[in-house]
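User: Hi! I have a protein structure encoded as tokens and I'd like to know what sequence might fold into it. I'm fairly new to this, so please keep things simple.
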């Protein structure tokens, strides 16, 4: 199965990891999927006319041209066939079939903490996110976030200032950095960590994509920390994804969302009085819970 075939199919609208797994189970290979007729495709569970039509129009030569262009731009493309595809993502039921990467995901990034929160933090929360990120990154724990303004930006900047690694998971393609105000930050992250996206490089941001990236943020991290949040929103979704994936959920006390998580069993992080060495070591010793055995909490995604 060629990388171009992966890109041609894996970047189609409506064809995510779950869909591609069903197609592979039915047809056995990407070649066979590409050669399948409409009736054969419609016989696969949850494949409707629109998705079948998209599959029939998959353009492998265009994908080959895209791969050549991306290689010249220093963007790597990882698929399920690649040994260096991140193991934590491979284990997801809806793992992205294709992952576009600027910078590099390294084995050291398996020890990571996600730091997320509101786009409109109080000054104290922004400072807490930056300090938490700096203290962890300075101790060899990679910092994962979503490049959004607010808490995400503070976390990325804190990790960079400490000389550590940080990963930004995008809800858009790598050619469409969102928000544009963080374009320079994205460039810096690519040089001291990585930008990762499951979307076609020319894909613009969309609300559903910004939500979907939260499952990747949490999956790549042993702990997910909510610094400041209301009781609904993207960071609370990240917490729920983390719980379902068997990751540790933690929160900085003070905001309504964080207090709800703490009441439901999340671990508290006191940024002002934290033993940073002990926290970093605790993260390093954390093992994800087995699939199907959520670690904490029982909060529905709002």
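Assistant: Happy to help. Inverse folding works backwards from shape to sequence: for each of the 302 positions I chose a residue that suits the local structure. Here it is:
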């Amino acid at each position: 199965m060629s990388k171009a075939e992966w890109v041609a199919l894996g970047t189609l609208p409506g064809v995510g990891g779950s869909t591609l797994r069903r197609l592979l189970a039915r047809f056995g290979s990407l070649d066979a999927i590409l050669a399948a007729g409409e009736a054969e495709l419609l016989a696969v569970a949850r494949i409707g006319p629109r998705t079948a039509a998209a599959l029939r129009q998959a353009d492998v030569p265009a994908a080959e041209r895209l791969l050549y262009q991306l290689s010249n731009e220093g963007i790597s493309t990882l698929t399920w066939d690649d040994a260096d595809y991140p193991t934590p993502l491979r284990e997801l039921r809806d793992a992205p079939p294709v992952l576009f990467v600027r910078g590099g995901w390294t084995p050291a990034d398996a020890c990571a903490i996600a730091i997320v929160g509101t786009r409109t933090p109080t000054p104290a929360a922004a400072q807490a996110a930056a300090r938490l990120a700096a203290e962890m990154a300075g101790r060899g724990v990679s910092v994962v976030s979503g490049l959004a303004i607010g808490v995400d930006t503070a976390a990325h900047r804190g990790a960079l200032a400490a000389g550590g690694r940080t990963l930004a998971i995008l809800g858009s393609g790598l050619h469409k950095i969102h928000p544009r105000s963080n374009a320079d930050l994205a460039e810096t992250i690519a040089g001291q960590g990585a930008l990762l996206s499951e979307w076609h490089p020319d894909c613009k941001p969309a609300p559903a994509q910004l939500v979907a990236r939260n499952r990747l943020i949490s999956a790549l991290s042993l702990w997910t920390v909510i610094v400041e949040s209301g009781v609904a929103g993207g960071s609370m979704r990240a917490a729920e994804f983390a719980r379902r994936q068997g990751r540790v959920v933690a929160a900085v006390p003070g905001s309504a969302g964080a207090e709800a998580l703490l009441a439901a069993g999340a671990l508290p992080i006191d940024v002002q009085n934290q033993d940073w060495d002990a926290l970093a070591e605790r993260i390093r010793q954390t093992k994800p819970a087995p699939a199907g055995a959520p670690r904490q909490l029982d909060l529905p995604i709002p």
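A useful reference point when you look it over: Strands lie at 75-79, 98-103, 112-116, 142-145, 166-169, 193-197, 223-226, 248-251, 267-268. Feel free to ask if any position seems puzzling.
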